[in-house]
């Protein structure tokens, strides 16, 4: 446990940021899995789920949770599942 006041505040801030970041990353992964499951089962709402997954990926990228290239790669892979 930190003794210095600024270190205590920083630890508290980091903990809050970690909760938000892990929540957003988890939501992104869930959106991707929902889309992949819908494609595999041949559902009708694939386009809507792709938009949702792409939005979640873009939001994670804009927050700095994933790299720009990973975001583009993930979206490309998802889009290729539709056109196969």
Number of extended strands: 0
Could you describe the largest sheet, including whether it forms a barrel? none
Helix content: over 70%
Instruction: Please write the string of helix (H) and strand (E) elements.
Output: HHH
How many helices?
3
**Strand residues, percent:** under 5%
Unreliable spans: none
Shape: elongated
Instruction: Fill in the CATH topology.
Output: Methane Monooxygenase Hydroxylase, Chain G, domain 1
Within CATH, the superfamily carries the name Ribosomal protein S20
- Straight-line distance between termini: 53 Å
> Rounded to an integer, what's the Rg over CA atoms?
17 Å
Number of domains: 1
CATH class: Mainly Alpha
Describe this structure in words.
The protein has one domain: Ribosomal protein S20 (Methane Monooxygenase Hydroxylase, Chain G, domain 1). With 84 residues, it is an all-alpha fold. Helix content is 82%, strand content 0%. The protein has helices at 5-41, 46-62, 68-82. The chain is elongated.
Quick overview of this protein structure:
Binds directly to 16S ribosomal RNA. With 84 residues, the chain is mainly alpha-helical. Helices cover 82% and strands 0% of the residues.
List the helices and strands and how they pair.
Blueprint: H1 5-41, H2 46-62, H3 68-82
Helix pairs in contact: 1-2, 2-3
